[in-house]
Amino acid sequence: MSVKIGVPSKGRLMEKTFDWFAARGIAMKRTGAEREYSGAVEGIEGVDLVLLSASEIPRELAAGRIHLGVTGTDLVREKLGNGNDLVDELAPMGFGHADLIVAVPDCWVDVETLDDLDAAAAAFRADHGFRLRIATKYHRLVRDYLRAHGVADYQLVDSQGATEGTIRNGTAEAVADITSTGETLRANHLKILDGEPVLRSQATLFASRVAPCDAAEAAALAALKARLA
Ligand SMILES: Nc1ncnc2c1ncn2[C@@H]1O[C@H](COP(=O)(O)OP(=O)(O)OP(=O)(O)O)[C@@H](O)[C@H]1O
Ligand SMILES: O=P(O)(O)OC[C@H]1O[C@H](OP(=O)(O)OP(=O)(O)O)[C@H](O)[C@@H]1O
Fold first, then answer.
1. Is residue 173 in contact with ligand 2, taking CB distance under 6 Å?
2. 160 lines ligand 2 (CB under 6 A)
3. What sequence ranges are listed for the domain ATP phosphoribosyltransferase catalytic (predicted)?
4. What is the CA(178)–ligand 2 centre distance, in A?
5. 81 and 162 share one domain
6. How far is the CA of 50 from the centre of ligand 2 (A)?
7. pLDDT in 10s for each residue of the chain, 229 residues
8. CB 76 within 8 A of CB 204
């Protein structure tokens, strides 16, 4: 059998991942038809490419169905938890940088910090009879962060995309999402709360601690790790 390496199947992370491996003498490419999710690895023996959604790579690593995987640290920490014992971080890859932040409407002039948000959330509940809604797909990370900063009177509402639009749509009062250039926040008249972000993320090469390895796979994995060191 072969070592399986999971790589994002499209977009910014896929191209930069291919470039990162190419710079280390390992050629990855998509094969087959344009929309076909098949790929190949050249330049090293016994390694198979598995093209996956970036958000599914943590689960595949944790299930031991892939030996290595490239995805954002945000997705691994959200899906597997901080300090989990299912994966090792082998190498930060220097791209895919994004901060997970909490943002509120620009026009909330009295809300600049998490303490302000806590006060606004208590006032919101008293006024409206329900808790201030924060839209996010990062439930675990945002809940832990807000708890650690003493923000209590809120509820998370799930948003799997176009999160910055939820306020205009009337389904949330605040958002917690990834930002890199800040353009999406600006375009939607949102401001980031002061202080450290929930998380600073970048694309990272992870290794599964639980993927079974026969002798051939162990040798291929050792050769691959040596090449990447
Ligand atoms: N604007 C951005 N700039 C840089 N990195 C980003 C940005 N948005 C998301 N990312 C990062 O890209 C990674 C993949 O996120 P994304 O949400 O696009 O994946 P996904 O939901 O798995 O995509 P799909 O399921 O459509 O394949 C995450 O680690 C995230 O931090
Ligand atoms: O700070 P910026 O450079 O503007 O990037 C931030 C945006 O990028 C991501 O969305 P994506 O493009 O993946 O679409 P999505 O909203 O459907 O997840 C993220 O969820 C933000 O919406």
1. no
2. no
3. 54-214
4. 7
5. no
6. 24
7. 899 999 999 888 999 999 999 999 999 988 887 777 888 999 999 999 999 999 999 999 999 999 999 999 999 999 999 878 999 999 999 999 999 999 999 999 999 999 999 999 999 999 999 999 999 999 999 999 999 999 999 999 999 999 999 999 999 999 999 999 999 999 999 999 999 999 999 999 999 999 999 999 999 999 999 999 8
8. yes
User: Among 55, 99, 180, 190, which residue has the most ligand 2 atoms within 8 Å of its CB, making it the best to mutate?
Assistant: 180
Asked if the interface predicted TM-score (ipTM) of this complex is over 0.85, the answer is: yes
Q: In terms of domains, do 102 and 196 share one?
A: yes
To the nearest 10 degrees (0 to 180), the angle between helices 73-80 and 139-148 is 80
Strands (DSSP E) found in the chain: 3-8, 27-31, 38-42, 47-52, 68-72, 87-92, 98-105, 132-136, 154-158, 174-179, 190-192, 199-201, 203-208
Same domain, 119 and 131: yes
Range of the domain at 112: 98-200
CATH code: domain of residue 222: 3.40.190.10
Question: Percentages helix, strand, coil for the chain, rounded to the nearest 5?
Answer: 35, 30, 35
